[in-house]
Every structure is written in C-alpha cells, then in structure tokens.
From TrEMBL:
Gene Ontology MF terms: oxidoreductase activity
Protein name per its UniProtKB record: Short chain dehydrogenase
Keyword Oxidoreductase on entry: yes
Family under the similarity heading: Belongs to the short-chain dehydrogenases/reductases (SDR) family.
Keywords: Oxidoreductase
Lineage of source species: Bacteria, Bacillati, Actinomycetota, Actinomycetes, Micromonosporales
SUPFAM superfamilies, alphabetized: NAD(P)-binding Rossmann-fold domains
Keyword Cell inner membrane: no
InterPro entries in UniProt: NAD(P)-bd_dom_sf, SDR_fam
Signal sequence coordinates: none
Amino acid sequence: MTLDLTVPDLTGRLAIVTGASDGLGRAIAGRLAAAGAELLLPVRDLAKAERTLAHVPAKTLRRADLASLDDVRAFAERVDRPVHLLVNNAGVMAPPARQTSRDGLELQFATNHLSHFALVHHLLPRLREGRARVTSVVSFGARDGRIAWGDLQSERGYRPMRAYNQSKLAQLLFALELDRRSTGEGWGITSNAAHPGLASTNLQAATPLDRWFKRLSRAGILVQTADRGARPALYAATSPHARGGGLYGPGGLAHLAGAPVEQRLYRSARDPRDAEQVWAVSEKLLG
C-alpha cells in the first residue's frame, strides 16, 4: 500500500536534522522548512552549509562534527527548548581503508550509530518535553548486517561494506529499542526508522558505486534522486500515521525506489535482545 507523503503544517515546531548540508539531509531539511518548521542543524562545515542551505536562516546552523562525541555534547547542551522532530541522518559510507573518529572509534560505527545514540542521550529531556518523533535514517544494507560483538571497531579485520552494514544495523536496533523504552517508561517519544532505497548522493563518493549511481539516477532506473530518496524519512518523521517501531522505505522493486511504504522489519533486527545489547554496549563505549 502506497502511503501518503503530504507533510503537515509544522509551524511552531523545532526540528533537528543531522547531515543536512548535503544529499538526503538537505532534501529533508528543505521540506521541513517549507512546512513551517524551525530548524536547528548541526553541521561540520559552516561555509559549505551556508552555500547549500540557502533556504534556511544562518541562525539555524551550528558547527558540530558528528564524529566527535564532545561536539555532539556541546551542540545538545545549547538546545534550550523542547524538540519536536529529530532526524538522525548524518552518515559515512564504506571508506576503503579503516578510519577512526576523534575518539578513536571506527569511523562508520562512530558516525552512523554512536553519534546519534549520544545525541539522543544528551537531548533526552528536550525530546521528552516536545513529545518528539525521532526518525533514524538507516540503509537496506542493515538487512545484511551482522553485529560483530567481539570486534565492533573492526580492529581484527576491516571490510568497508561489512562495517557499514553493521553500523546501520546498530542504528536500526537503537531506533527500535528507543521506542520500546519510551513506551515502557512513559517518555512520550516515538521512534522509528526509514531508508532511502538506492539514492544518488555524495555518500557514495568514496565507493566505486558513485559513477553508476549518478548515471542510473539521471536515467531514472532503480536509483533515485536525493529528493525522492528523502520521502520515506519525511513520511516516518511527520505523518500522523507513521508508527513507533516501524520501518519505512521505497515500495518499488526490491524496495530500491518508489513511493514510501511501511516494510516488514528485517530479520537481522527482529530479536529485541540484540537491541538491548546494542544499547548496553553503546552506553559502555560512551562511558
């Protein structure tokens, strides 16, 4: 069943979108702003963000490197009002050689999952005040992901896509566990997840896929533009019909492209014990 994509009026609501200076994040932020939302956007490169986000006031931009846990904390501590929407979108995809964040953590696991775990942790009082919708932008690569509990940081062997899929599965498990905990403890937060299918963005710039994604996107074959790839996240983040614990993605062939639909949860993410363990391990890594 194809789901409606109308973005409701968001006047008076505060939305935070990570990774908004490019790709999916820029498309998501643009649609939220057009619907009247007030935006607060953590960006690593202010100059780039000011060029690419001409549709938003400069005051909405705040410098923060999501790969730095100190930056995440500092950004969150400056938020002084209820947050109504949080879109965890920033990401890194498959650098060919293993890289680490400022905190010495494998870059994909740190950026795609731990930074958003930390952001929610530090923003929790503001999210509760706003009875927020938290949408995590994952990847259908999470379907093939496996959590290497004994080597989360890929120190014993680094394979780019395996580390990427693991980080996105961890992000999805976190989104599900956040919704379960909010329901059980009365936080008032709704948490769900969405993926863009195949969308041509700069996320693939470090991979051999980049050239082919751009060609297929221009031809309208299987690969979507960033604007189209943003639709599942927009639906998950704003529709009154999108539910907590749901996963949304394109409804076309193999869920690679098309209008948003709710999807069956990947088998890799169905065991709540894995979600609980991801939460516990993340807390330990963050001290």
